[in-house]
């Protein structure tokens, strides 16, 4: 019982003190789970992170589910997962509530008009980084362009793209064993 | 259909098909804003991304909570978050029980080799959607609309931040810093 509560608290801290998610959370999980508690080894943690990347969903949440399930089975997985999302739910709900009240202030409107191009730039920078690390061949460029064009100009659902791309990979890329 | 049920359904789909982390959920949210315009607009989504990047927690979870709140208050926030997390929870629970060698399977690797470039393309659609609401003062429907509706100060903010993020040293600066500077400029320039 106390171990499950500890799991919840450890991942609550992880959710509360990291910005950005994904690999930004790795050092904190390392400190809480590997160093302080000794529940798993560093190698195991890195393995869970690489597993989390190739599972659907948010990487940090996936890592919490993996670690929790490894340490304490179903209940461990459940409470680690709840722990990592709870701070977000509380903070964002408070924030969203406050923003609703501030909506009428012109300063807030101007601030967000300034913020939007910054957000566009931040995401565009992430796109450049992701493009460099994941598009490495001619067929990769085609798949990248196809996904972009079909969603932007044909209003196709991202789900269709995910299904097409994963079946393509499964059927055509298995034998070659190399990256697209 | 009931709004809360629709939230569950949409976020379950997002949780199941958004592969590659938090950013990968954003194209699904833009898709929702087109399907249900009364839920949130694409410029509201851009603002939610700003808040999600500047508050603790992972972007994917923050976005789901925020979007759910917009649609149906606190109940919506909790429901959207739980629905987003549920598919991966089930999948991971099964994987960790049965096969830990999952990430070494040639089938899984082949699938992801196919997926990776497409996910990059999908995230780029999100960047494009945010770019459109950030730079243009009106909704663009034809080529002639483009030039007269560009907000020059917004375009400059975009270019300066994007260029500075290409330098290794500046990349270490936290996104919150850029967002704060941009908010200040927005107020001063009355954008």
Describe the structure.
The complex is a heterodimer of chains A (180) and B (191). Chain A has 180 residues and is mostly helical. Chain A has three domains: 101 residues, no CATH class; 29 residues; 46 residues, no CATH class. Chain A contains seven helices and one strand. In chain A, helix 1 runs antiparallel to helix 2, helix 1 packs across helix 4 and helix 3 packs across helix 4. Chain A starts with a helix and ends in an 8-residue tail after the last helix. Chain B is mainly alpha-helical and 191 residues long. Chain B has two domains: 133 residues, no CATH class; 41 residues. Chain B is built from nine helices and one strand. In chain B, helix 1 packs across helix 4, helix 3 packs across helix 4 and helix 3 packs across helix 5. The longest helix of chain B is centred in the middle third of the chain and has 40 residues. The mean pLDDT of chain B is 88. Classes of the chains: A mainly alpha (180), B mainly alpha (191). At the A-B interface, helix 1, strand 1, helix 3, helix 4 and helix 5 of A face helix 1, helix 2, helix 3, strand 1 and helix 4 of B. Strand 1 of chain A pairs parallel with strand 1 of chain B, so a sheet runs across the interface.
């Amino acid at each position: 019982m106390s171990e499950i509560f500890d799991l919840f608290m450890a991942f609550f801290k992880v959710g509360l003190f990291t910005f950005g998610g994904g690999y930004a959370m790795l050092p904190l999980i390392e400190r809480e789970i590997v160093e302080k508690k000794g529940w798993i080894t560093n190698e195991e943690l890195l393995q869970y992170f690489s597993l989390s990347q190739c599972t659907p969903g948010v990487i940090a949440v996936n890592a919490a589910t993996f670690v929790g399930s490894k340490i304490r089975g179903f209940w461990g997985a459940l409470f680690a997962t709840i722990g990592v999302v709870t701070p977000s739910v509380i903070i964002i709900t408070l924030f969203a509530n406050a923003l609703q009240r501030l909506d009428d202030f012109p300063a807030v409107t101007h601030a967000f008009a300034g913020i939007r191009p910054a957000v566009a730039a931040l995401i565009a920078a992430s796109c450049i980084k992701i493009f460099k690390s994941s598009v490495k061949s001619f067929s990769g460029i085609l798949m990248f362009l196809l996904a972009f064009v079909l969603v932007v100009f044909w209003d196709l659902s991202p789900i269709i793209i995910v299904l097409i791309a994963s079946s393509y990979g499964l059927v055509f890329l298995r034998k070659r064993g190399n990256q697209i | 259909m009931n709004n809360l049920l629709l939230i569950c359904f949409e976020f379950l789909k997002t949780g199941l098909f958004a592969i590659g982390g938090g950013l990968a959920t954003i194209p699904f949210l833009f898709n929702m804003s087109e399907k249900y315009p009364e839920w949130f607009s694409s410029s509201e989504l851009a603002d939610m991304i700003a808040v999600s990047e500047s508050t603790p927690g992972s972007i994917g979870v923050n976005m789901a909570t925020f979007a759910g709140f917009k649609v149906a208050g606190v109940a919506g926030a909790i429901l959207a978050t739980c629905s987003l997390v549920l598919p991966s929870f089930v999948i991971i629970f099964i994987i960790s029980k049965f096969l830990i060698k999952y990430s070494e399977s040639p089938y899984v690797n082949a699938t992801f080799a196919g997926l990776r470039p497409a996910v990059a393309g999908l995230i780029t659609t999100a960047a494009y959607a945010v770019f459109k609401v950030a730079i243009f003062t009106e909704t663009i429907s034809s080529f002639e609309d483009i030039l007269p509706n560009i907000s020059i100060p917004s375009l400059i903010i975009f270019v300066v931040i994007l260029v500075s993020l290409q330098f290794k040293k500046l990349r270490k600066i936290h996104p919150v810093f850029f967002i704060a500077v941009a908010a200040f400029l927005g107020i001063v320039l009355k954008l």
